[in-house]
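Quick note —
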Amino acid sequence: MTGIPSLPSRVAALLAGAALASVPVPAQAQDEAAQKVLSELSARAETTMSSPFELQENWPALPEGMEWGAAIGIIPDNTGGAWMLFRSEPPINYIDAQGNFTKSFGEGVFVQAHGFCMDHDGNLWAGDSGPFGDDPSTAGRGFQLHKFSPDGELLMSLGKAGVSRAGEDTFIGPTACAVAPNGDIVVADGHWPRPSNAQQDGDRLVQLRPDGTFVRAVGRLGSGPGEFAGPHALAFDSAGRLFVADRSNNRIQIFDENLEFVDEWRHFGRPSGITILDDGTLVVSDSESGLAIPGPSTAPEGADAVPRNPGWQRGIRIGSARDGSLREFIPGTSPEGLAADNIGNIFAGLTVGCSASPSGGCLQKWVRTTPPSAAADASTADSAAAREGNSP
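Predicted structure written out below.
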């Protein structure tokens, strides 16, 4: 990074200065100095990578009387608009390409909105992971997956309200969902941090039929292949492979159509959000690298509230789901919610720092300013036609 010395050189300079002054440097001070430098590296807002995107300012236009909530779920409509899941009332909203809110519903349903997908019939599935810590005010609520019609009718609620358990009719805390090629719903189950009365292990994927019937669960808490620690986002590619943002393990895991482990990628940062376009473009957001956050005991950094994935820069990485190449990067943003459409827009959902965003709130729309290079796309000949018809 231009103008920013490398981590080894900066820490070495600190220690060398102390040595010249004949002052002993305790190990704890050395660790604190290193952590400070790593935190600065994670937060930096510059990059020398290709970054051909521009933030659309003051988009969308929040309706009068509505307050911003964390933008955690996004479903683009491929016309420049998107369905949104906010942590505010009303939680579910459709926003057109001009930034106007034209549909809103779902009031009073969620404790902590988390996870959002649209099935083949146009119905909206929205998760409620429950509180992140002990909160008596939410007793008897949360830890469910809800299915809505596009007109706002609540069609189904899966899981038992207030019960955090890995079962066939209960969830630990659903964080994401994705629709398989055959129409089944796959749910990422297990958020970190979580309440003390929630199940502390059992992180998994859950496969459901569109009518809510339980099919199977895959995985468990851990860091090995096919194990999970806070799976936070899901996306299918055109070959039917499932990409899982295994966030607390600082990796993406890839599974085949039978949910068998294929590979893991660690070079896209600590993934909070993930999406795959028709041409195989892979978009991944990192909202937590360098931040001190509690996690499971199996995590690489342990369970304490320590910096996660230290030194990695927060932002949005763009590459290829086909070969794993990393091609572009958007710095200076830390979205948890993430989606992209096939016409060049990336939607970034913030959960913190909303008031400081030039977008005017918790939702950002990044618009591609130049087309991807020929090297950035292996081929688009076999791409499916851009999905249309998601707008109401």
